[in-house]
Description:
Elements: E1 7-17, E2 29-39, H1 51-56, H2 58-71, E3 81-88, H3 95-98, H4 101-112, E4 121-125, E5 131-138, E6 149-154, E7 163-171
Parallel strand pairs: 3-4
Antiparallel strand pairs: 1-2, 2-7, 3-5, 3-7, 5-6
Pfam family, one: AA_synth
Protein name: Peptide synthetase
Organism: Oceanibaculum pacificum
Amino acid sequence: MSDLVHIRKIVTIVEEIRHEGGPAPDRPIKRAACLAVIKNPYAGRYEPDITPLMAALEPLGLEMAQRLIDALGGDPKKVEGYGKGSIIGTAGELEHGACWHVPGGYAMRGLLGSAKAIVPSATKVGAPGARLDVALGHKDAAYVRSHFDAMEVGIHDAPRADEIVYCLVMTDGGRIHARVGGLQVHEIKGEDGLR
């Protein structure tokens, strides 16, 4: 990794959802999150140019995206949804989370291949143990209503004041009992990332 990226820990979480009170589906839906805790190189001061951190985070984004593909079975073609987020420690600023948009989002898109839809994102400043609801959407078409979801993530001892928690999430399906209409997965045209 770069001189700007010092990792304290990486956490991977996998949820296997078998039902939400209704009938069991043909297969469980899996959601996986990968969180990396890094030292914030800009903590405690205002830095006019924070873009070097974006390039420095690219290898971490690729590593985390690959960990998620592996956690969901190893086949990128089975991944249907994604999202990203960050929690910035209290000595940092919200904009430090924006440094994750390109290295996190493009890492997932690159490894998944066909991903055309915008990667939903959530960012906030928080203390150790802060939780974040990472918004999720279908990777190829943002209007696929069955994949509008979120995964709550957090780490009990992070972020410390001078740290950032960066997160990626992938799923191999939508909400387990989705039944409120909208664009269906089999109707995706894949032309513009919307439909």
